[in-house]
Every structure is written in structure tokens, then in C-alpha cells.
Amino acid sequence: MNIKRTKDEIIIKNKEDFNVKELLECGQVFSYEKINEDYVVISLDKFAVVSIKDDYTVIKSKDIDYFYNYFDLDTDYNKIKKRLCEIYPDFNKFFVKGLGIRILRQDEYQTIISFIVSQNNNIKRIHKILKRISEEFGHKLDCGFFSFPSCLELSRASEEDFKRLGTGYRSKYLFNTIKQLQEKEYNIESLRKLDTRDLRKKLLNLCGVGPKVADCILFFGFNRTDVFPVDTWIKKAYETLFSSQKRNEEQISQFFISTFGSLSGYAQQYIFNYMITNK
DNA sequence: ATCCAGGATCTCC
DNA sequence: GGAGATCATGGA
Fold this sequence. Notes:
- The longest helix is centred in the middle third of the chain and has 15 residues, at 123-137.
- The protein has helices spanning 20-24, 64-70, 77-87, 108-118, 123-137, 151-154, 159-164, 171-181, 188-192, 196-204, 211-221, 232-242, 249-260, 264-277, and strands spanning 3-5, 9-12, 32-35, 38-43, 46-52, 57-60.
- Helix 4 (108-118) runs antiparallel to helix 11 and helix 10 (196-204) crosses helix 11.
- It contains 14 helices and six strands.
- It folds into three domains: 3-77, TATA-Binding Protein (2-Layer Sandwich); 108-221, Endonuclease III, domain 1; 225-279, Endonuclease Iii, domain 2 (Orthogonal Bundle).
- A hairpin with a 3-residue loop joins strand 1 (3-5) and strand 2 (9-12).
- By secondary structure, the protein is of the alpha+beta class.
- The structure holds a DNA duplex.
């Protein structure tokens, strides 16, 4: 990747390695705003502005180191794509719009809350609900948008507050999970030390977190790549493109993990994007 | 109007 | 331990 980095900005020369539109609008993250051709990305109380110029992309932020890591700029996605094709010869077809996709290294806690809201919901509405939650319980940032509320800030929200903001039956999941997250055993630092298997178990104990949401949290928040979230789109992909053998979600996940191993998460992301693009 | 969305949980057997 | 119903909401 051709990257230039200064104290408060990152310039990416090659647009094929970094397509901010694809990478933000593919359903891995929900707290961002589009202003004309610019994007403001919000991670807890930090934000970055990403602008697309004619022949380069620029990321500006007061927390440039944080966002260098957030955008996963050290990972070589061409290598990953190459390896996926070696594992599964026909994998090329899933790269339709996957040219500039990267897996963001999001805040773990924000990912937990976001993906509880995501269950049985659509991307547009998830975005809208999380924005309302931010405006109600976060605080205003210099960019004019609101921070994603911290665990402490969200602990002031009642179940009725969540209902009012449109989270429906997930309201009690959010209320209960936030209580759980304040307990010592869910200290994020200590969760990071667990291996994927133990961490997954821990996440499944959170109210409103099932297998799919747990896998998304593991992948998008904790940066674990040996998981394969199975949602309705992936189920369709499995049934129409991979196998006629009947399997439930957990078995489908295992089927893909046994194929793609530690690259499972990436494989999932390419297949997911292929599906929602070609709906 | 019915179906569906980056599903989880409860309820029965 | 596995299938089926139920859960809010809004867009297609």
C-alpha cells in the first residue's frame, strides 16, 4: 500500500486498496455519517474525517494513530485474497465489489452494543437507531456529531429509553447487557486475553448475544479471524452456492471454518458482500 | 398486505 | 437437545 502518514493525517494513494464507501457501507460498522463525498467515522468519542480526492484518499483526525490501527492499514488484503483463492479455486467471483474492503478494528464495547441492535434488523435501520442512541446518551464532538455513548453513559438509559429510540424487543437485551458489561468479569482488557473459544462462550452469556452476534463481535471488535458469522445472507449463499447438504447455522459456520481456517472471517466478508450486492 | 432484515430466546417435546 | 413460535419496526 502506498501510504503517507503525518501527525494528523494519512494519505492513501492507491484507491484500490482503500475504498471508504465500500468499507463503511458494507454492514460491519454503523456509526458514521456521509457529508457530500466525505465520511465522518465515529469510534466512541474519537472521530476521523475521510475525504475522497481525485487520485487519493485522506484521513484526518486528532487521533491519527488510533485510526491508523482502526482502518487496519498494515494488513495486506491482496495477500489474503490470493490465499482465499488458493484454498477455494472459484473464490474470485466473490470479489465483485470487494476491491477496497478492509476489516475495521472497532472498539469492542461499541461493537457489542451495535450488533445486539443489528439482530433481525436491516442495515439502514440499525444505523438510524444507533444514531438516535448516540444523540441521546453520547456527547457532542467537535465535528458536530455525537460520540457513541460509553458504557457508563449508557448505564443511565432505562429499558423504556431504548424502546423510545426504536430498539423494540431488543431493549431489554441492551439494558441487561450493559449491566453485565459493568461487572468485573466483562472487563474488556481481560476479555482480550481469552482465546477465541473461551471469549465466544463469554459473549454468548451476554443477554441478546447469540452465535451470529457473538461471531461479529469476535471478528469486527476483537479482531478474531477464525470465526464465520452466519446470517440470513450467508445461509442463502451456503444453500445456493456451496452445498445441497442441509445444515443449521452452527453447522454452516463450522463448514466454512473447516474450509477457510484462520481466514474465515475475511472469506465471510467477501461472500456476504457478494450476496447483498447481487441480492 | 405480507415478507424480510447482519437472530435470540422461550416453549414445547 | 432440536424444531417452531414469538419478538418490534419500517421499508419493499
